[in-house]
Amino acid sequence: MKEAKFQGILPTHNDNVSHDHPLKEFTTLLLGAVGLILLAYWLLGFAVDGAVAHISPETEEQLFAKFDLPLADKLVDDPEDQARLQHLTDQLRPFVSVAYPVKVLIFKSSMANAFALPGGYMAISTEMLAKVKSENGLAFVIAHELAHFHNRDHLRGMGRGIVMTALAAAVTGPNSSLSRLLAPTSQFGQAQYSQARESLADQTAITALNGYYGHVGGVDEFFTQMIGMPEHPVLQPFASHPQLKRRIERLEQLRVKNGWQVKAVTPY
Amino acid sequence: MGDLIVFLVLISLGYGFGKWNEASHYKSIDRREKRLVYLPTTNSRKPLGENGTVQRAYLVSGSVVISVDYFKRILAGLRNLFGGSVRSYETLVDRARREAILRMKESCPKAKQIINLRVETSSIYKGRKNQIGSVEVLAYGTAIEYERG
Fold this sequence. Notes:
heterodimer, A: mainly alpha, elongated, B: 3 helices, 3 strands
């Protein structure tokens, strides 16, 4: 057999690489991943709600009894203020249907803030106390936090936080650059859920205030004070709370709808 | 949020530079392949054709390390979630393989053919989990020179 003569020929087409546009593949995969995470977050959210429904206040107290007092290093010891806040909280509790005792803590912070914390603690910042002018305004803030206890939002929020962290770690591995890309997705899910719960708490709080005082004067006092604080229009979908303007509008809509009156506020 | 901005900058830079780099590399590969097409390079155990007496036979090798850009790495990471062919790494391996063979051919301008070609690949960075960043390709073979006449 005669040996074939070698001839150098270059291939006309490279079959070893894909000729699709990489951005197309990137977009498809990214949308798929975002969709999967939102779906998983949504489904696991239901599981958290289911679990929270089975945690009674007694169980919650037992669960968190072993933990340190929240914000322990920032707590302010002001018996007089604390007693007044505690009294107001105890007075408001029946109007928000919170049957178990809630302990009020005051903590030092330059941010006007209040939290409903697991274990039956309500933390109010010193700046918050400085911002509100009337007892009614303060009562709204307290009733709002009590509403979170009533709706068990403090546990739901924590459960979702755990789910979010676990999800990020499971899907992409901790600290990978991919998790940085996908983190906003779960943050968005978290924020949207949180905003819905905040609106619900506002609604419960205004109803409680009307029940307690017989009118809803001073409900938007705190929000009005806060207007002008930086709020990012682009990042708003990722924020934990709805926009202040929207919150004030919603409260006003509720007031008009229910025919609640606005009377003079009790000074604090 | 700051994290995400840094990330977006990195990925855009990766995409831009990666694309530019790849295009210029392919241009150079195409040009050199055309120039060196005269040198038969095969994995045959014996020289091809009747060319006379072999004067010299010696080992020639060419190797290259090519790194993946940030964009391709993220794309491969996303691909990791769903499975399927990792297209973003295909050009990387293709470029490395062709570049290594070209370097090997360029190392022996007097050779009339290269036989027994072998191509080996390994990834550098293997120890770092999730960070496999570059590929090494080594091409080696036996260069043959014939007696003049």
